[in-house]
Amino acid sequence: MAHEMFRPPIHRGMRVLDRSNFSKILPLTAARVFDNKDISRIRSQLEKSKDVLQQDRLANVHPDPDPELARKGRRCILLRPELANASPTEHHVNGDATSIPWPHSPTVTELVEEELISVIPYDLKLDYDYWTYHDVMSSILPEDDQGEIPSGYNGVGHVAHLNLRDEYLKYKHLIAEILLDKNKGMKTVINKIDDVGEADEFRTFKYEVLAGPDDMNVTVSEEDCTFKFDYSKVYWNSKLNTEHRRLVNMFEPGSVVCDVMAGIGPFAVPAGKKGVFVWANDLNPDSYTSLEDAIKRNKVSDYVRPSNEDGRTFIRTATAKLVKTAHNVHITTKPSKKDPSAKPQLVRTITQPKTFNHFVMNLPATAITFLPSFIGLYTPTIRQTLPPNYPLPILHTYCFSTKSDDNVLESQKICDVISKLLDCEMKPGDIEDGGVAIHDVRDVAPKKRMFCASFRLPRCVAEREVEGWRAEIAAWAPGALMRAVGADD
Fold first, then answer.
1. CA distance 123 to 149
2. Which residue ranges make up the annotated binding site for S-adenosyl-L-methionine?
C-alpha cells in the first residue's frame, strides 16, 4: 500500500534518540515541467485526475532533481506512488526519452504528448523532521507497548506536563525528547511523580524534569487574559478552560461572585473583564501573589478583590463585609485622540450589589465539605441591613465521584451528601425549581469523574440557627464525606 511507504524506519527498543536513523528515500515519479509558467495549470489538471501526490505535510512541487535544471529554477510535480511502481511505456519528447507508467493516466499521457511535461524518476528524501511524534514513537516502542502510546500532556506555557504510566517510564527521557522536537512551543517536559494534592494542601505536586531546563515560571493566556506564575507552586489545569468559560458565562455583568478557592484567577479574572465583581480568595500564598499579579496585568482591579485566608472563614467574613462595602465603578468615555485636553465624560456608574449572586468552590477533592459554612450565613444582624426578600446565591461546588453512562447514580450520591451537610433535602433538578444541577466536567481517571453541583442556597439553610448543628457536622469527617459521594473509589 502507498501509505506504508510514508511510515518511518522501524527501530524497536531504541533508548537513546538517534535522529539520523529516521532518514528514508522513497522512489517516486515526477512530472518535469518544461516551463514554470505552466506549473499552476498543470498541477490543477493532475489534481483533478488524482495523479498528484497527496500526503500530509508534504508539498508536491519540488525543485528538479537535476542540479543544473534546479539552478535554473526548474521544478517538477510529484506523482502518486502507484505510478512509480507501474511498468513504463517510453515516449520521446523534444528528443528526450520519457517513461509514462502503465496503466497510465490519460491526463499524464496528454500532458506528455503536448510536450508540457516529461515523466522522470524522483527520489524523495524524508528525515526525522518529517515524522510526527506518534510516527516516531510507533517505530521505537515494542509492539507489546503500543496499546496507548503516551501522547496526551497538559501544556502550561512552555511546560509539557506528563503523567506517564508505569510501563512507559523506561522510555520517559526518549518520550520527552521527541515531544520537545515535535512541539516547538515547549521548552521543558516534566513527569508527575505523585497525585495532585498528595504533597500538600495547595494541590501542587512533585515532579521530575525529563527534558529541557527546570524552569517552571510560565506565561499562560486564557479567555483573553494573561497569567504569569510558578507552576511548581500553584495549581493550574489548562484542560479546565472550557469549564472556566462555561461558568463565567453564567455571571451577569454587574453581579458579584465569591470565588472561595480562586487559585490564580481562571474564573475571577475573565469574570472581572466582563464587568463582574469578584471577591477572590485562595489559601496558598503563592496563588494569592499570582492572583494579585493577574488582576493588575489584566487591568481588572476595579472589579476583582483578592484575599488570602481560609475558605471556610472567607465564606462568612466576605458575606458580612459585602453588605457594609460601598463600591462603584465609573464608566467614562475614552480619551479623545483629536482633543487630548478633553476630559472623559461619565457614561454610567456600576454599583456593587450587597449580596453575592454566586459562590464558586473549585477544590473538587474537598470543596463539598465546606458547605456547612453556609448554614446560618445570613445572620439576624446581616438580615437587618437587607430587604425582606433579598436574593439568595447560587452555589457552584466541584467534586469527584464515580463514572457511569448516564450519571444518574452519581447525581443522587452527590445530592445525598449535600442534603446531609445542609440538613435539607436536595434532589437533582433545575436550579430555579430548587433542584441541584449536576454538570459532568471531565473524566480524571478510569473510574473517576469531576462534577459541578450548582444549586440556589435554600433560605431555610441560609437563615438557620447554627449552634447544635455545627457540632453534628464536625463529627462527620471529610473521609466519610468522600466515601459517601464515591470520590475515593
1. 31
2. 244, 282-283, 310-311, 362
